[in-house]
Write a structure and sequence with these properties.
The protein is α+β, with helices and mostly antiparallel strands. The protein has one helix and six strands. It has a six-stranded mixed sheet with strand order 1-2-3-4-5-6, with helices on one face. It is globular, with a radius of gyration of 12 Å. The N and C termini lie far apart (about 35 Å).
């Protein structure tokens, strides 16, 4: 298994992926469902969530792992990507806060 980064121990095989190698995105529910790992290309972030309620708190995410600001355009695209991947991976539609 390939570790995705040194800051957080997420293994590549544990992430639900879509897209091609250049533009792939992935998600992974972390721990007992209280955090979500999201990766787009070589950038990633983690946000709070409740897996029990399929509720994802993306509104507090301000920066990517590389320090770049998460823009409103990024956020809109991220919501669609997470919704599609979450539905496929976990079988339900998430709510966003």
């Amino acid at each position: 298994m390939k570790r995705l980064n040194d800051e957080f121990p997420v293994e590549e095989d544990d992430v639900h992926w879509s897209g091609n190698d250049c533009e792939r995105v992935g998600i992974r529910v972390i721990g007992r469902g209280d955090a979500l790992y999201f990766q787009s290309g070589d950038r990633w972030f983690m946000c709070d969530m409740s897996a029990v309620h399929a509720s994802i708190c993306i509104s507090k995410v301000k920066k990517w792992s590389n320090g770049q600001r998460v823009t409103d355009a990024d956020r809109k695209e991220i919501l669609g990507q997470i919704a599609a991947l979450y539905g496929t991976a976990y079988g339900c539609e998430p709510e966003f806060t």
